[in-house]
User: Fold these one by one.
Assistant:
Number 1:
Amino acid sequence: MALREMFQQAVAAIYHQIETAGPAAYAMSVETAWEVRSIAGSRHFHEKFVPRADARHFVQREWSQLSSLAAVAAFNSALAEAVLATPQRAGGFFDADTDNQTKRERLLDLLQNTFANLTYAAGPSRPDAATIERFWQGLNEWLFGETILTIESAFIGNFTSEVATLDLGEGLRVSKVTDDDLSDWVSEGRRRWGVEAIHNVDWRIVWEYTATREEYLHGSKLPSRVDALRLALRLLKPGGLWLRFWQHRSKHPVVFYGGTRGRDEAPRPRRGNPFRLLAADEPELRRLLGAILRSNFTFYSPAKRFEDSYHEVRTSEQLADLVITLEGLFAPEKADAIAYRLAMRAAKLLETEKPKREPLFRLFKDVYGLRSKLLHGGELEHDREAQKTIRKHAVDLWELVKRVEELTRRALRERLYAPERFTHESLDRMLLE
């Protein structure tokens, strides 16, 4: 039997049983049969179409009799064998030394989601022939095509912009959210965090691009523009922006590697005022974004610590992340006298006026001491000596963190624009000049 006919028969079997048993009973029965990772009874399908109704009797007595499971399993197995029979097309799915049995198991695991996406898109009503054909064509494109159109997107909270749509090139843009953009997972986030907590999710980052199958399946080989843009915005200016989890998915209806990618950030209103992107910020934002995309691991390691500071609940932990970022920039060699070298190098590089370098040197040396106290179990908020050190440079710990954050932001931008100044030799030579 042709694969297209097997696909159509599997769809017909699924919807026949949905219509016979009811969507609630069918969804729950398939959850039981496939241990939640079901073909049509995924949590999203269940929540969108049916409540958890009185269907336990169906689950207990009849789930093992679902003929649609057999039809789906037969189609998936035949499709997996067809992929394995064309290694020149299927090579992007596997490493060169993967054995056939492992390949088959991985393909079946991927294909398990085929009908979940169809039923989620079509709903509890039987899809028309055009919808079934669209999914069939998408499935073939995804499995046998050379390239895949993908979309990665994120919703931005605590963020406003003077520009309604900002096109940053290569398919990357920032735009206002429309009602259609507010997908189910955002609605779930609103319920989880509360309307007041995330009512300002009005903007979205979207990156639409074309990737080879290998790039798509091994996302680390394709640097995320969404990650880079988030970091660029945070290096541009202070502000409490955060991202609700983002999707990395195929543009056509068949989605195997959907789900979230990257960090799902909770709202942190205490981080300060909402981030406001001005029209005049655009040139510098583009410059930062380009530099981040060209940078390497020696920049990303300290930059990650800078972003970690946005997720800490306690102000003291934010300070620790910022000082570790500075350590990674100015004293990465982990030799003796780290505090002294960090303070000397940072003060010299960040301050051009000699009279202002000494206060900056003392600031960096003191905050490194506070960081060491924290990492050894100390409490800055209730430590008399720590509070005395804090008041030397700011009115309280939060004001000190804001000051150190801005200095760290400047240091990371210097590292982006002039990486040659941050080699061990350059940092030492700078002190002799």
Number 2:
Amino acid sequence: MNSFLSAQYRYLFRTYPSRRSVKHKLFIGVEAVQLLSKHCALQRALKSHDAPTFITGGRQCTVILLSHNRPQNVSLLVEGALKNAFVRKVVVSNSNRGVRIADWVKANDPRLVLVDETRPTRPGYRFVLAAQEADDYFISVDDDIFPAPRQWTEFFQCLLANEAVPHGLTGNLYKPGTASSNGSPFHHVAGENVEVDVLIGAYAFTRRHLERLFELGRRLELGEMTSLANGEDVLLSFSGEGRPQIHDVGELFCCASTSLEGVALWRTLDDFWDERVSLFERARTTRAAMDKRHGSVS
């Protein structure tokens, strides 16, 4: 069994003790079969996909990928992105100093840049890396979501169809006074073509969105984006001319560690949801003040 699948099954079976009902515990067997099926389907898609020769207008994007706890996941993301001709460059930033990312990503493509960071970085670093690139369009996907090549294409086309707002594949609706399954007022939304309040996991955005994001961060006095561990996606979600949008590009193959304590940030960081609520409300107020000052959405 390859290292990716071995890790997936380890993640999956680590969830067993936290499953409360007998039915949920038994369902782990079904999930194990589904995991293998989804992996096989993605492998077939990677082998059969014929990359489109161009996107209307010849527009291209840079893909930013971050790696820390799950280096075995990155190769599938890289392969899926590089199957598309509209991807001008893929930058993989590894913040785990105990790992050499080239040992995990073996793709041979001149568009691929692998970086082992020499200082600690957090999720906000994805936007620092994007700002250093020359492109006007960007995609960044967390290392627990594995889009097939076609899904990468559809995602980019969604951004090009409406550049006014940032786009995602999953998101949250903020409903104060309620509690979702994770105990927070942020309710998960996926598999729909709708507006949301916060994008999570996958992001397609423009340079203009980046500019607004950094301005918002400065006004909120958040310090270096490189060190922002929680809420960089909240800032991006307030960077458009309206609410961000998510899209249904078909069922997504997601890592078995998505909700695993010690791996997933939202299950690991203390006060994760309290910090998020506070930042969301502050960002909403600050963005409204920015718009009022400029007389309209800038």
Number 3:
Amino acid sequence: MKRQWLIILAATIVFVCMALNVFATETRVTSMGQTGIFMYDNSNIVIFPGAVMRYGNEIVTELRLKDVESVFSAEVRLPMNSYMFGFNFNRPITLFDPGVGQSIVLNSTSDLYFGTQLAGNDLGIRASLGRDGFTRDSIPFGPPRLEESARYFEVAAGYSTDLYDASISLELPSVKSEEGGLKDEFSGNMIMLNGRYFYDYDEKMRFVPVVRFGFGSGSRKTDVGGGNPQEETDYGLFSLNLGIGLNYQISDNSILVFAIDPYGYYRLKEDEKNVGEGTTTTTTFPRLYLGAENDLVAVDINTTEIKWKFPTEDSVTSSPAIDSSTIYIGSQDGRLYAVDKNTGEKLWDYLTGGEITSSPAVINGKVYVGSHDGKVYAFE
């Protein structure tokens, strides 16, 4: 019954979106290799709240179904005079628990946004709340009852101009668990500073350097029961990430994004009472990102002129396969396209049951491609 209501709600919002023509057009960070922070994209509003002023009259919805679980999330942003108001609900938020060394994903979340003009530029504020829990009943001759809960609060402020975005945020996560007589509590805080700069080299090429810096602290208290003393551990966190992205506008509807994180640094310091201190340091060199969107483009390698363009209905993240006269390309709209190599005209297409992100292969006159519907297709 809950799933049916979620589907009805999602369909209703989609109908409203079509009536108001307020569909978002720039949420493609997932399909473009996680390159969102290196380009203009409305997914950046979470990191840079000042950017909320760029994206008014938008509604973005998503329905995630898995087994018996259903999660419906939505984003709404509406301008009112010189202000912008927005909210998200059920945006997945990931918490990292340093004590157990694993991440916790919260699906019951809410974000509130407020944006306005300040000195001719954009100022934005975001407040986020999240919670989630898990309970496992005890099993005869098995593990005891387990109860886990997590809470999250964050406030962020950002300032955006045509040349740069900057933001600061404060995160306050907490996690509690109880299993049998063992009780564990963790709470902490994290301050993040983020900035990026947009440098237009020419009409088609833009460089985007990015800096992310964070520091925080936390504490864990563990009560093992049985009259044993409580265990206490304090944590200190520090992180630094540097990156630079290149946006190349191939055509009006096609963009290539290449980015590199040349340096990343993360340090976790632990101080366990009556035991001692320890430090874990992680350094990354380098991390590469690559993403492309929409049109299939044929370029003359001698003159660099565009010979033809072929638009699809969603992002293209795979490489094409080519035989003597035909180009085969998969798209995230779920279709495999066959395109004339010389003219760019569509010869045929086939709709699969999921996104196509892998590259097709031509072997002995047959075309093979995999889809996110879990199937591999073969075409004569």
Number 4:
Amino acid sequence: MLGVFRRRRLVGALGSIAAGGAIVVSAAGASAGDPPGPRPIGGDAKGQAEPRDTGNRPKPQPGSGKSSTRPSLAVSNNWDGTVDLVDPSTFEQLERINVVPDLQERQTEILTAPDRLAFFLAIRNQIGEGHDQLADDAFTSPDGRFLYVSRPSLADVVAIDMGTEQIVWRVPIEGYRSDHMAISENGQRLLVSDSTEAKVHVIDTQAGQIVDEFESGDSPHENNFSSDGKRIFHASIGMVYTPLDDPIFDTSKGDRYFQIVDARTYEVRKRLDMGQVLEEAGFPDMSAAVRPMTLSPDERFVYFQVSFFHGFIEYDLERDRVRRVVPLPQSEESRNTAREDYLLDSAHHGIAMNPQGTKLCVAGTMSDYAAIVSRKTAAYRIIPVGEKPYWSTESEDGRYCFVSVSGEDRVAVIDFKRREEVASIPVGDHPQRMRTGQVKRAYVR
């Protein structure tokens, strides 16, 4: 019953938002002054992707034994429905993949289902800043053949063959919005947060179907497998799109938890209300919504961001206690910004750690910077990167931190050692999640 209540509360909130939004819907493309409606891919307007002609790309031959892969960084461009594959060493764009080749078909389905249409519009107007969310998170398969993508506005996950750029399977989720994902080391299990159902689905990547799930709080969000694959670190963020952002209305955001889940049975082994934990540690009025997180190499400590806080928290998982609360600078503009105007309640949204466990890389979303922070001393260097940095990912060799600068359609490459930006990678419209992985050499330049 608790899960049903959470779902009704979340559905009611989004439904009210949708009801208060635009009513006129058109299947044709819309200009800035047009009423909201499903927008087809195509054309050269910002926010719309044009599929690439890949007819001359070499395709793998059955039985040829070509299994050689190369490292890649998959950058999800949320508003134009593409994923850029980038070489994480040379920063060269290897390929841009259209991950919504079926968009027209999906839009037709949405237009004929009133409940889906209401959520589609609510996601566009309240979460997507007036844009459809078409590529939130993307992982490559370990063998470099497939790209798995969550598509929030379409409420599904797809597997795309990177050799043909065709959809191999599509898994509609139970609710109305798919969100952050995680993939097991062997690539056989894919986790996807179901924003409106208070749960995380487990997808069998070979069968292309949901095979299990585990319970979460309101608006399930971040997922991470432990290095040994036995645990899942998960967090829910509550209703970040509502305007009741003063701490006195905190409970209106819903149930928000940090969870440790058994990756074999999918039983929740530990559940913490971090708002309560922080208050008991002497830090009142902090949000319980755990946003991006990263773990120390030994996975004893988790470092996470929470809504409205400019900085991060260090939590000792072994002793179950807050070890440090680390504030970081706040720009003058963000200091003069009301909490109601924060981007989905995010003061900071993006944190990564180098493999050596000595430095953190933080995306200061509302202050337009990245920060390299000493894990030992918390000393930091601020690197201005531009409008709305929204995710941080470390390179596998530990040299670089990649920061998606979503407001400028680029990825800033930060050198951990030099603590400065050393390269800029142009990508698609509104880059967010970035994941390192592999791609077959035959599939890219």
